[in-house]
Amino acid sequence: MTTFMTPVMHGVAMQRLTPSAPVPVGTTPALRFAGDPLMWIGLPPGTAIAAFATGGIVQTTAATVPGLSTSPCTIFQLSPLPQMNMMAFNAIQGGLPVQMVIVMGTVSTPATDDMLVAGATLATAPGVGTSTAFLSFAFQDRMCRDPLSWAEAIAASNACDTAWAQFVLDLAALPNARNLRVLDHRGVPMTTGTLSVAIDAGAPQTVTLTTDGDTGIAVPAASQATVVASGMTNPIVAALDVPSTTAFDAFANAGLQLPPGKRIVQLLDADLWLKAPDTGVQVARWHANSNIETIQEGNPYFARLVTDIRSAKPSGGNPAGAVGLAGWAFVKGSLRDSSVDWPLVPGDGTTTILNLITELHSAGVDVHLLVNRFLQWNVPTIDDAGFIVPILFVVYAALSPLQLLLKLQTDPAGYVVGFLMVGALTAVLASGATEYLAETELEFSKPLMDALQTLDPTIATWTPYPCAFSDNPLVTVPPTILGVTLDDVNHIGVYHQKYVIVKPASGDVFGYLGGIDINSDRPDTTIHRAEHPFHDVQVRLTGPAVIELIRSYVERATLHSAPIPIPLPAAGSIGNAGSHVVQIARTYFAPKSGSPTPALTFAPAGETTSTRTIIAAIQQAKDFIYIEDQYFTPSNAYVNALLAAADNGVQGLMITMPVSTDQPYGSIRRADVLNALSAKWGGRLSTGMPVRRYLHEIPGLVTNLGRLSLATDLAAGATTAVLQPVGRLPAPPFWAFIGNELVLVYAISGPPSTTSQMVEIIRPGGAPSWGAKPIMHPATTPVLAVQIPGIYVHAKVMIIDDVFLFVGSSNVNRRGHYHDGEMNSFTIPQRLRSDPTNPARILRSHLMAEHLGVSPEMGQSLFADPISALPYLNTTTWYEGAHRQPLSFFGSAPPDVPIGPSSSIPGFLLQILIGIARETAGKADVWPLMADPTTILDPTSTVSGPEYP
Question: Model-level pTM?
Answer without folding.
Answer: 0.91
